[in-house]
Amino acid sequence: AQRVTQPEKLLSVFKGAPVELKCNYSYSGSPELFWYVQYSRQRLQLLLRHISRESIKGFTADLNKGETSFHLKKPFAQEEDSAMYYCALGGGNKLVFGAGTILRVKS
Amino acid sequence: DGGITQSPKYLFRKEGQNVTLSCEQNLNHDAMYWYRQDPGQGLRLIYYSQIVNDFQKGDIAEGYSVSREKKESFPLTVTSAQKNPTAFYLCASSLIQGAIYNEQFFGPGTRLTVL
User: Fold this and answer.
1) Closest to A100 (Cβ–Cβ): which among B33, B42, B105?
2) CA A25-A28-A34 angle, 5° bins
């Protein structure tokens, strides 16, 4: 069965500090991992996916199959990064989402 | 404004009543999904459909029903059998391209409250 774990409900950092949002997954097949973000009063939207290997808004995420992790990182947090972040795993015909982590960037 | 729309934005229901949430998309997407979003539990899949007149149960389908009579529309009915229906409901759609997991586009959501 697919499972996504985001251990932190809330992550609070100061502006300019590094950010790491943790995501671990469990899946017997070849995983496809995603990060979705929901800013205040906006729709849930895709931030990035591992197969694209892109940096979006300064965020990167590397798939580590050995540790079954897909942590989201940004070297210098900005106030506009404050949002709810969901890690998601594609398997079968559906996505499975983690519980989400609220990122608060303080000035 | 194109994309995926949900209505109503807020919905109040008395216990014992069925209610239907609307989801429409003009993106020509094949697949549509319904999720339930609860604090601390993330998004949980209720139902999904990859083609007209066909749909599959997700992880929490009990107490819900759907239909897919048109490609553009995927309404969700919350029945009186759903024991804890108060929640935020999200609809999404995506293309289907073989085994690739395409980006899901989400609607603005409907907040259902049972009185």
Assistant:
1) B42
2) 40
